[in-house]
Amino acid sequence: MEVVYASWPWYISGPAIAFVLFLLLMMGNRFGMSSNLRTLCTICGAGKNVEFFRFDWKEQKWNLIVVLGVTLGGFIASNFLSNEQIVNLDEEVVSDLLELGFADAGAAYLPEKLYSAESLLSIKTWLILIVAGLLVGFGTRYAGGCTSGHAISGLSALQFPSLLAVIGFFAGGLFMVHVLFPLIF
Prior knowledge:
Distance between the termini: 26 Å
Structural class: mainly alpha
């Protein structure tokens, strides 16, 4: 079975991301997705109970437009601008995933074991989602931003704290994939 990339090539997507980032920086805005959750919580009234959510969310409405654009752009790219072929995975990765019980490894972007409707009925899935959500939320708040904010916006602005955060994100990702993932599955 021949497998080729379904994603856009780096020489298209990379400059597109850089162009959007350039526009945001020229307008004096910093890119990051996690700040949108804070904005949405503020819009819903969380500022009545928690000081962190007491700010003028209208100053951040441009960022909500970025989220809408990312969501709409992802939908358009996935449904209208991509072929139906799957991502190219190394044979060793496919073999490792098959050993962990991922029967569709190398045949689907989203493995059924994690993303099927049946998996949402599992207590194990809910525990993983809750713990992961808490860890991601804590890490994002502790690091002062998410991976996209630090890796794209912070590094391009040559911010040393963003470099440290990105190193931490990668170290955590490697630890998850090589140590925790096999224990969980």
